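User: I'm designing a mutation panel for MFS transporter and want to avoid disrupting the core. Could you give me a predicted structure to guide residue selection? Please restate the sequence first so the numbering is unambiguous.

Assistant: Good idea. Sequence first, for numbering, then the predicted structure tokens:
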Amino acid sequence: MRTVLRRPDFRLLFVALLASMAAESMLLLALAIWVKDLTGSDGLAGATIFAIIAPMMLAPLIGWVVDRYRRRPFFVVANLGTALLLSPLFAVRDRADVWIIYVVAACYGLSYLTLHATLSGLLRQLVPSELLADANGALQTVRQGLRLGGPLAGAALYATVGGWLLTSLAMTGFVVAAAVVGLLRVTEHPPAAAALRWPAELGAGLRHLTHEAALRRALLGYGLGSLVMGFTESLIFAYVDQGLRRDAAFVGVLIAVQGIGGLVGGLLSSTVVRRVGELGALAVGVTLFGPAALILAWPDLRLGVLALLLAGLSLPLTMVGLTTLVQRRTPPGLLGRVTAASEALVSGPQAVSIGAGALLVGVFDYRLLFVLVGVVTTAAGLWLWRGRRLTPPVPPKPPVPPTTPPVARIPAPRRPLPDPTADRLPGR
């Protein structure tokens, strides 16, 4: 990770993403708490996350648009657009305005997909292939580290001041990210003209994912786990409310605990990718989510802390493994569409899962649902582990031996030639 952070271009991008990720970490949980506060419903609070993920179904169109433009200027415009779309939150006053939060959450889902697809291509241009896992690991470390303070800060700001200050800070973060990325100097060529008709161009990312064996297995396994992982977005509110008998804002404390595990996972993720490959790292991440969910079936705060640490550890391993796999196995001209399509294939089941979880939590005991999540994710992780040989670890580059300067050869002293007249006697 230190190697990639020594690169000036990546450090500049790193600073920009630090600003936008800080805004995101404060905002997303606060939106769900905002809805919970206005409605008193666990299901409606979890549905806020559903609203963010649901627009992922437009991923092929978003990816096609991203691939039509140069990465850096598009990334700047997308960050400015994200700041602008948050402004309607200033109009939220009471329960009747909850629909505004849902609309903003849905627009943010589209923006997140756009930024993620653009960032993937921008990283591919800035960082050599052998350092992609380190770059993704560094970004995930920051993202997970922000969970330590971001959600708590967002929940505290909302509880003491209200949503207007939270919205202002989030908008500022995205504007700062756009300004910093605008300073980045990247040599980019205009994208190649479309070689196929637009319906075929839209589906190019999906075709690549289905034809590449490692990507196909990764998305099938992770997609299976996502079918139930989304339950936890609503279950965590029920766990805090019904199990721990605490206020909904305490969810921010648990998310901060998850951030500790995520911080450790982010620091270890590039090492895990180098040891077991991208599919192996993805498998470890998905599998760790299983015991975390099983532990949460028992409402005890000490066990809950352990479960959230495991869940936090699993997330960066999953994301770094999948993101690095997509970047290494995809041609640059397709990267926007493939990244967006992979997000849709994972987030689609997850959106259904979040919606189903918001309904099921009102019908079934949340502990039973946590057990279901644990069993399914463990099975999905083990199936992914069986295919880890499709992505063997990338061997490190052998160290370049130091070049030994040529030794200057000192010529031997030349012996003087004999003088033919030396043996002549005078007068001869």
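For picking mutation sites, this is relevant: The CA atoms of residues 264 and 313 lie 6 Å apart. The chain is about 70% helix and 0% strand.
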